[in-house]
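<goal> How does this chain fold?
<body> The protein record starts here
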Amino acid sequence: MSSATLPGLAVLNPGGRDVDQSFINGPGDPSEKIHAPINYHGYAACTNGAFYRTTELAASHESVLLLLRSNLEDTRRAIELLKAKGCFIAISFKESGTHQVASLLSRPKQFELFRKIAMAADLCISSTPDLLPLYGSVSKRAAFVPTPYPLEFESWNFGQPLENRHGILIGSREFSVPSRNHLLALSAARTLSTLITVINPDGKSGVHALAALNFPTDQLNVVSPMSYPTYLKLMANHRLVLQFDQSSVPGQVAGDGLLCRVPTVGGNGAIERIAFSTLNGHGRGFDELVSLASRLLREKEFYQEQVAYLDSVPKKQLSFGAVREVLHRLVPGVAGNPWVAAG
């Protein structure tokens, strides 16, 4: 039995770069100085827990979600220490796109180590339904739990009046990852005759790659990476987000769209499938996605319907309160939902 003293779920990224961060008071307000309460930080934030890179500090909680990184030996050592402290241990891949997990486990020794870690853990939490068969093959207890977003907190509502929204933001950024289909999304957006904004993380090489697409000079707006709150403000000024990502990721781009109340077209991630049921790329061809984007640009009633849906329905599955209730049923030491969702 753990001698835990701290509330909520501890999310542990052993040896990671993100600093230790407490969410004892919930998600807090948007800040350029600290990590936003999204992705795996969201699991900690929605339970008033904390995010750590130090195993000893994480052991101060009754339950720990241990993230699997490229160095699985760090994970194995962390499990040994946490078990000695009596903690309940859940595990999850930190980078959980199917291509990322396949790369991590491509060597037999890595897969065998993963299998031993999963068998030692009390629970496998999958941030995407696509990994459930993998977890289920090595563990008797696995559950899909989507990454939460603070949708019920007004300070995290970046939505703008519809009349202030213009053009398309491209949701993907990586030319080098084939499953992102970044080039195809850009090429398709070019045909929609509206302003296209794309974030270029690759400096001069990215500029050269974009120049090869030969966009009209007044159609493409290229911006550099920015802080998360600034990025959300940028997204919120667009009519829609377009991506052709087929990486089966948890779905941060879609989650960002929820915070901005901006429809996201394409993507087959977990949040896309839940929050954008009529717009996601799961089972839809790229030509159909372009057609949906065109309708959002030109059909006022269709656009308003999609925005109204975003401000209500996803809260039932993806808000902090909704995901906290799921974790409350799965993980010891996580209290029920203290928040009442707005709207």
Q: What stands out?
A: The chain has a mean pLDDT of 94. The radius of gyration is 20 Å. The first strand starts at residue 10 and ends at 12. Residues 72-84 form the longest helix (13 residues).
